[in-house]
Amino acid sequence: MRRETFVNALRNLDLLNWDSVHDHSDRTFYISHRAHGKALDAMRRFALPQAKAELRVAQEIDPSLADVKTLLQASEFLTELGLNAKTRASGLARAWTIIRDTRSTLAGAVHSILETLTCERIQHLLPADYADFVDSAEKSLHVGYCCLVLNRFEEAHRKLLDYLTSHSEESHPRLWGYFGDACYKLHRHDECNSGYLRALFMDAQAVDIKRMRHPDLQRIFDELRKQHPDKTARALLPIHTWLEKVLHIPKANTWLAQVIREQKFDHSRELLLYPAQRYRQFALCLYIDQSGLHGDIDFDARVEMQRLDGGLFRRYLEGVAKLEGNSQE
Known about the structure:
single chain
């Protein structure tokens, strides 16, 4: 069951009208689907014992209901986490971290159901204007991400932007990535570029890359992962998104000025032995050279890029030459 399918199922719990059902087979179909609908409604309220009971009824009446087994697995998982109808939003946020960490081990359909149910329940429990981390102590799950999971992209955009602009002194690369996702789905291209740039050049290691909605970013990362370990692929991702013109860096902007000023650039030979750190520094130098933040460093960004990786630096210069040629046409 794809996430979109499950979200739609939650939105459409209106069942068949009993008065329109005439023969026995239709009545069996009606009863099984009614139990299935009751189970979904109970799961939304985290009334898990009721949900499991209704799912078993539906399964006994109509074993052909393909998603009942998946829903039962999801209900059992939520029960094992100790969740119920009285669990508060902060408790659900802590449970979400466990669900997140099991993404690679759970079946995709089960994980989608778990995350969708948890995010919807959190949204139900929080005030409509809430735009912060669900658990202020742990700061793992932001309500804007819940909106993304539920395909509420306008709401996700608003809540993430409200938080990021009011906490501009803090670094939140993961949230900037989610902001880019919301903008991509809303076709707000400049904001999308801004969000992804800040996320990837700020700290690509902290970004939820596997959840990114932009297909070209996913494609580039998948190609890099075939050649490099995960950390190195992440460090290379911002560089290659610029080289392949997926993202562009506006001139004379100061988005990452604070990050640049706080960065401790390592000019030692030992840095060359650590690919992830080396390409992280290369990416920041690329950003400096494109944005014009040279005044915030005390070295030549291009000389440093050449030292870090001569071949990649030549590709960068080729990209710069093409950009300058296009601007003169």
